[in-house]
Predict the 3D structure of the following.
Amino acid sequence: MSAAAVEAVDVSRSYQLDGVAVDALRGVSLRIDTGEYAAIVGPSGSGKSTLMHLLGCLDRPTSGTLGIGGRDVAAMSDVELAALRNSTIGFVFQSFQLLTRTSALDNVSLPLVYRGLRRAQRRARAADALDAVGLGHRLNHRPGQLSGGEQQRVAIARALVGEPALLLADEPTGNLDTRSGADVMAILGRLNEQRGVAVVVVTHDPDVAALAGRRIGMRDGLVESDSGATA
Amino acid sequence: MRSTEAFRVALDALRANGLRSLLTMLGVIIGVAAVVILVAIGSGAKQEVEQQVEGLGSNIIIVVPGKFEFGSAPSVSRLTLDDVDLLARVLGDRDRVAVSIASGETVRVGSRESFVTVNGVNESVPNVFNRPLARGDYITDTDVDTRRRVAVLGSTVVRNVFGDVDPLGRQVAIAGVRFRVIGVFSEVGSTFGVDRDAEVHIPVTAAQRLFGVDRIDALAVKAPTTDSVEDLQVELVAALQEKYDGEEFSAVTQTQILGTIGRILSLLTLVLAAIAAISLLVGGVGVSNIMLVSVRERTREIGLRKALGARQRDILLQFLIEAVLLCVVGGLIGIGLGVGTALLVDAVSPLPAVIAWWSPALAFAVSAAVGIFFGVAPARRAGRLDPVVALRTE
């Protein structure tokens, strides 16, 4: 059995929305191993985005424990969480979230800015990452000059450049046509296989979910089904 | 994050909204320029006064009725020509006591006329004040005693009413009464844009009849030595108060008068600078406002940066540098504009303007401080954004 990249034990998360408490997660236990490829599926409002934010250390659980790389997130300060995100987690968003006035190269180097690397170093590593997603010829293009599929590949390169242990993708194909979507998923699959990065994809699309080795179904803030629970 | 990187990102953001950045800066530019210009004009006026103090003999004492104080109303004079003798007794020298009675009157020769200050004086004026003649003679004691209608003209008056004609021995009409020109003053130029050559001296006795009064406005005494000035001031006032029971008199030196003007000018400079500083404050509010807009616009960018590992501090720094950059660049442009305008004012207008080294330095420091002060609130707001909420923002 391999080590856990991230482990949630009885995690819940509730929000105050206009004074009303909303329970987005109601006690989820989940373990993602290093090198695993999992898909989280479920209808809107089932809590999959909340779960992804927690797994990505963008948020802290209301109760329960969440461990990343063996450390308890609840005990960590904002600064430590930021450092943890920077070093171990890569994000891919549905809407790409690229800086529009910035070249592909500088978009990809952004995580390294917060790691304190020098510009030349950042650019060299960013160029490698863009090469890995097949965009070695588009280094100085701005997002507006790239197709949707290419933009998402830039975003993947950005998630990859910091050499994370866990890559979280929130509806990565949601804004793409079928062919670009397939390209993007192929890249994610290759990264998982060749580099051993744990990939967690949140998706509506059964075809996308079918690519993952493990399928976690969510409903009403709980894990409803899990095809390959390792815990 | 390295600070050079934060600097680059801030500069990039400002360039992305070029016009908006420029308009925001304009508030700071105008504020800083206004401070620099007004302080320069105030300092210039003060320096001119100080230079005159240095150029003056410090042993001239002016005796006026009432209290000589900044803000007190001028008193009605009860001084008469007899007081010349009184002060002469105190001083021990009648040749060093000058009198003055002044009024604005029209001087006319044929169809040419000029509005001037007509000063009724006695023969001692050249002994007390430094007022050299270019041509002719000054008023004599006989002229005063016999109420002779003779006049000494300033160079501007000569130019205005005589043109190129030699004025000596010719007639001028002062307030409709004919006077003979016996002398012309050397040119002395202007002070604070007031032409000191637009002046006519006539015997004090003739002036009293012309103006229809028997008082005089003021007496001036030249102390024999600088050391005796202080004692004399006291003695002169005491002598007058003994004569006019219950009246107030003041004996002040020209240095004291100019000192008072200097204080007024300092106060004026301060008030002007304070008013200009308000516009700088308004400029700062503009910066704060535009930074809030900028933070709102870039909420998603902030969320993304945080997701990628930016700390609260990194985001705060990025926006703070942006605000400070707006103010500092605006401040530098404002200093350039202010210094340029002040030099122009000095060159082409009668207003003197002096750039004190501290005023651009202060303006720069204040604009940087304004940037920090007004940038902190929006920058903190940006730094504290919850990444989950920020990323979800449309």
Summary: The mean pLDDT of chain B is 87.
